[in-house]
Every structure is written in structure tokens, then in C-alpha cells.
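Hi V.,

You were right to ask for the full record rather than a summary. Here it is.
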Amino acid sequence: MQQLIQNYKTGKMELVDIPIPHCGSNSVLVKNIASLVSIGTERSIIDLGKKSLLGKAKARPDLVKRFLDKAKKEGFVKTFYEALGRLDTPTPLGYSSAGIVVEVGKSVHKFSIGDRVACIGAGYASHAEYVVVPENLCCRIPEGVDFEEAAFGMLGIIALHGIRCANLTFGERIAVIGLGLLGLLTVQILKSYGCVVVGFDIDPSKVELAKGLGIDLAVTDIDEFKNITEKYTEGYGADAVIITAATKSDEPIHLAVDIARFRGRVVVVGVVDIHPNRNEMWHKEVEIIVSKAAGPGSLDPIYENKGIDYPIGYVRWTENRNLKEFLRLVAEKKVKLKPLITHRVSIKDSLTLYENILNNKGGPYVGVLIEYESREEAEEEKKEKEETLYIEGQNQFVNPLVTKPVLGVIGAGLFGKALLLPALSKIPNITLDTISTTKGINADHIAKKYLFKKITTNYKEIYESQHINSVIILTPHSLHAKMVIEALKTYKHIFVEKPLCINEEELKEIAETYKDLAQKPFLMVGYNRRFSPHSQRVKEMIMNRKDPMMIHYRVNAGFVPVDHWVHSEEEGGNRIIGEICHFVDLMIYFTDSFPIKIFAERVSGNNQTIINDDNVSILIKFSDGSIGNIFYSASGDKAFSRERVEIYSEGKTITIEDFKESKFWFSGKRSNFKTFNQEMGYKEELHHFVNVITGKEKPKISFQEIYKSTLAVFKINESLRLGRYVKL
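Predicted structure:
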């Protein structure tokens, strides 16, 4: 792998090819996707490394004193050669990165292979393709945060800990001196917590950037800064002044004491000369605090290396808890990082990057990211990002609402006639306009029974109709994708019975079609189980859940002969596509998250008396950390219950038995919910479809959920074929 290092003795920087590091028992091995260059810190380290021994001694008199103290005890020559040995040790650069866990130490239980994580810490979250990070120095990346944003973690928590050192209360007025990367992060965090913030920097471009990120006012002139601070604090002075500048001058500390109120606080986060005027401090009783790194735990080997946490009752905000909080602010868009990114370079070009930074070429530099993927991987991620962006944007349709649904129904097989059409006919204030089936006699019978106005054997007449605004598709599985795409192009609201389609190519075409529509109709797939009264009760029980849950879904599906159409790839897809999609969707509904990887295994039988793909065990990992297991068998007795859902979460145990009885255990007590009949949600899903398109309800199922559940069943088949887990 490639890693960026510096030799302190010679000052030389190198990009070296070295083996992937060993993963210790308390650590995780992470494949970096991005790491952040801390311009101020790393530049000072590199500058120090390039100095002569005398220059190093002048720059770090504190280390010289330690050297002399040690030399007095152990001898000058021995201490001198030890010091040279330390300087001659290659030092990794970088301390903030993000990537994917590829190996987990035996004592680590927080993380799994495949987790997206943000990593922090000098010597750990380095500029390298692979890094080994102790578990307390990394945390999962929440949904909505990408690797580039997560790579800001260390800088974010340095800013956050600096703010905590100011001991702020609600509504205080804060001044920030220095609007580089650290200052801009500080400003955004302060604003997200409700503070009034004014700022100063000598660089006009950084002042403008701060204004775009929500600061109340920022200026480049010191006198003007004093005036606006007085104005925004009503003449009292700033409650706290946070210095995030990097300079050898003592001007920032004098300025901070000058604009602080009586008994105000000055927090030094950046690197400045701390020699305040004693008389000024005495007059105001100003408190000066030097913020240490990222919070409690920083540089503590017991906390960082051994993974022993501080009790939250005694230490509320450790560096790990600060990291989680910073990522939460990013996920909620209260801290915006994309506008801060000024440069992205590949690891192979990193030496040129540092040369330009040291020579003040190619700037201004604010957020500088080093990337580690190959061109092919980067293009693939870019494609996935674009796909996610447009999928996430389809959670709400934007087509004009209809005052009265006028429906065309395509198809009327046994399932439609037995369950959906009777439920549809009982919904008030809708018009059943046209029924289309391949056989006219069937269409005529249905029309008379449910009072449709027209019949046809050409379904395209429904799409061509100007007054039909909604379509119900109940055709064989193989026709769903084609008919959905045609309906989308005519801007009709769509209810299609599951599955949405039977292969990934069809799914991609549907998504592309939906993406390109100027106005998007409501598209809903018949995942009825999430609409069952039993599922609704369960959702209420787990609504405020924070921890991951475990779900076991057992299905006694019943034997279907091998020559049945559901097993045909061309017509039905298979039972995994046609039925297991229901169970995946219900897990998505309960977890409020999406599958990220899947492993499936099937029996090895003769595929005649036992159908191998109809007897599968499926393990699904969700993005919130939850695990779902689907045990699907066609080998049981049909007299036994068909479906049982078991949920384990935060001290609760919940079961749903055939959607007739649900049981809830919590705090040693049990409660039941029963329905007279099996309530699978068929009538409720159709009512919801009508209520959404008429504006009476907001959609309870999004296009993204439909897309992910459909993709998941294709990945189940892929896992069965490959014999390993697959990622979505």
C-alpha cells in the first residue's frame, strides 16, 4: 500500500510502498477512501522537520529542556544518540480520515466488516491506503454523510472541544479570531447551537466564505471588528472569544482580551503566542483556556490504545462522543463541509500537493482531501452517488393532486379478483373507469361485478385516456416493468402489485425514467404488510428506537411444483423476487434504514421434490446496524402458521403471528393485539394510495424504499449464485 511519511532528521517527505499494517485485538483495519490535510498543523510539522538540528532546537526549546534533563541523568552521548534515533524514525502524516472496515480485532465488538467509519488520531488516521485505528478513535458514519465529509472528523472535534472549553450558555455572543478551516467549522457549530457569532480574519476570501456559512458578521479590519463586537454585545463585550488563528504573533491574544466582557473567557484553539497584558486581564478578570486537541481521552494511551472509555456520568464529552456529535451535525446539514473543499488529489499526487502548499502555490487552500480509490472505483462511487441523489429526491411526487381519482385497472387474475378488486370497489369517491384484461369475457364479467364504465383488451387505451389519472397494474410479474414505464411517461399515478420488476436491467430503466420526469406521479408497489394494523402497532412500539434491532422473519411458504410459472425467470422471476420482496420491505419499514449487505444460503437438494431456491436462509445487514434474518421454507406443513415475525430491540420482544395476533413483551409485562381476521394490509394500502394522490395523506412509502427493496432481492439471488455476501 502507499503511505505519506516524513523523516524528521532530514525533513524529507516520501510516498512509500509498504505492507498493509497488522490489525491488533483492540483495533480495526480500515481501507481509506479520503483523508483531510490539516494545513496549519501539518505545515508546521513539515517546516520543523526541514530545519537543521540547531533550528529544531530553537523552534522547540521545551524539547531541548527535556533533552538536557535526561542527559544529566543518563549521560549526554547516550541521550544524544537516542534523540537522533527518534528523529530518524519515519513519521506518518495526517490524523483525520474516513473509509471502510476490512478487518476487526478480536476484542472489538462495535464494528463489523463493511462498516463505513470516520477515523481520528495522529499516527492512526494517516494519509495511507490502509490504517489501523483503535476502536475509541473511530465511529460509524451516519446516513446522509459521505466519506469526504466524514474525513473532516478530527478538525471538527478540535473545533467542538474548543467550544466546550468556553463553557457557553444559551444565547451567548461569541467572537472568533481566525476564519481558516478550524475557524469556519467553529462558526458553523456555534451557529447550530444558537449562538450569535462575529468573526475576524485578514483574508477577505475567508471572510466571504464565513458569511456564506451563516456567521452573523465577519470583517477584515481590526477596528471594525472591535466595533461590531461592541454592537452585537450591546457594549458588554463578547461572552467568549475563540482563537483559531495560526501565527507567531501575540496580537490575537491582546485582541481577544480587549473585546471580551468582564469575566469573559478566551479559548486558544489555534497556535498563537500567549503573552497577554496582565493589567488588562486583571481589570476584566478574563479567563484564558488552552484547548487540548479533541477532548478528554486525547493522547491518553489507556483510552486511545486499550479502548477503555471514561464513564459518561463523569466525563460527558470524550473525543469519541465529540466525533459522533460532530457527524450528527453534518448529517442534519447544520454543518456544511462541501463549500470548504478547495482541493482533491490522489495519494499518488500528494507530494506535489505538499510542495505547492509549502511554496504557497495553487491556493487558497482550505479543505484539502487526499483520495485513495482507483479511477474505476471512483467512477463507480460517483455513479452510485448520482443514483442515490436522484433516488432520494423521489420520496415525494410533485405531480398536481387529483380531486377525484379516475382509475384504469390492468389485469384481473385470481389474486386481483380475490383480494384487491373487492377492496378497491369499497373505496368511496373514486371512479372505476376502465378494466383491461387479455380476454374480453373476463373483462366484461369484472366490469359488471364492480361497475366499471368501460372494458378493453388493449391496456394502452388506459394510458391514452385523457381523463384517467391513475392506474392499477395487476398483471403477471414479467409485464410490470414495461407497464410501469409506459404509465410513468403518461404521468399517471401508479399502484403496481409486487414485484416492481424481475431483473436489475428493468429496475435501472424504471429509475432512469422516473428521474427524467419533470413532474413525478406517485408510484407505489403493493407491499401490503407494512400497512397491516399489526405492523402499525409494532411501529408505534419501536418509534423512538435508538439502538439497532434484530428481526427474525420465518415463512412457511408451502411447496410449489418446479414447473409452476413462479419459478420461470422470464415470467415470474422466482419466489425470491416475487415474494421475499415483501419481507425485505417490512424490515426496511421497521428499521427505517436500508440493506447494505446480504448473505444467502440455500439447501442442496434434487430441485424436484425440494426446490432449492424455495428453501433459503437470508441474512441482511442494515445501514443503522440492525440485522434481519429471513428463514423461508417451502418444505413445511401448510397446516402450520405461515408467517411469524420476531423483533428484539431495547428490552422489547415483539411477535406477529400470521397477522392475526401480535404480542409485546416489555419490563416483564405482556400485552396482546388481536384481529378477528387475518389483516394483511390489502385494503389499507389501497386506501393509502387514493389518499396520497388526493392530498389527504403523505406517502408512507418512498421511491427510494421501493428501489432498495427491489435491488435487495436481486442481490439475494446474486449471493446464492456467488456463495458469498454481496453489498448493495
